[in-house]
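Design a sequence for this backbone.
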């Protein structure tokens, strides 16, 4: 059992939280990314369709986005899977979406209550390894019906202000699945669905850095780059 918790996070967690807060306000200086484009929430639209299917399957009406970034994915219209533009909330057909991100001041207050679904896209790899158990436990504790996570299993392009890679916990699909299973066992009424981005980019690189970033982002949208993990919990009543 982890000796760290929400009330007693690791020193590494506190250090990283301060660095992420700095990025939100100052931007990413190594790639010269302005603050408003740092963790804006743009990874979510890649997962709109699978999340919508889960929402319909479980008849979810309330959503918690755990690690939402700046939440722009809910403030403005996004490109929907059918190519049209629309609001995420309308596309999902839910009553409420709550944003939580400890590194972004407007959403840094812990949510109250529970939610039908908890989603977390491109977040867990930013959390220190020693704090993963209590962070996952917190996510499952907030969920009534299901948890959806997307986890990158490769280093990031972004760097923190101290020069470290923004993905501080780069682990295999198997490693993450073990941790998810372990926490999920405590919440038998909640199912989880996990997508793992393996980051197997081809070796050839464009000449420009922005070209490399653009190609990488484009490739990460490909469906065969993601693996859907099996549901690993018993449904209610069984």
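Sequence:
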């Amino acid at each position: 059992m982890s000796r760290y918790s929400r009330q007693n996070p690791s020193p590494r967690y506190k250090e990283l939280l301060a660095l992420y807060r700095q990025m939100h306000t100052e931007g990413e200086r190594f790639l010269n990314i302005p603050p408003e484009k740092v963790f804006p929430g743009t990874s979510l639209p890649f997962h709109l369709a699978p999340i919508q299917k889960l929402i319909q399957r479980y008849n979810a009406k309330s959503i918690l986005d755990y690690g939402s970034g700046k939440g722009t994915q809910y403030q403005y219209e996004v490109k929907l899977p059918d190519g049209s533009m629309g609001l995420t909330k309308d596309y999902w057909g839910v009553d409420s979406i709550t944003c939580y991100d400890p590194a972004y001041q407007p959403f840094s207050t812990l949510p109250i209550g529970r939610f039908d679904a908890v989603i977390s896209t491109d977040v867990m790899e930013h959390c220190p390894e020693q704090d993963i158990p209590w962070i996952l436990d917190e996510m499952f504790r907030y969920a009534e019906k299901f948890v959806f996570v997307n986890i990158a299993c490769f280093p990031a392009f972004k760097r923190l202000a101290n020069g470290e890679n923004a993905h501080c916990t780069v682990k295999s699909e198997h490693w993450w699945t073990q941790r998810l299973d372990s926490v999920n066992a405590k919440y038998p009424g909640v199912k989880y669905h996990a997508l793992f981005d393996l980051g197997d980019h081809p070796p050839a690189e464009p000449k420009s850095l922005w070209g490399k970033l653009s190609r990488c982002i484009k490739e990460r949208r490909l469906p065969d780059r993601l693996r859907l993990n099996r549901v690993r919990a018993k449904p209610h009543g069984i």
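Residues 201-238 have pLDDT under 50 and may be disordered.
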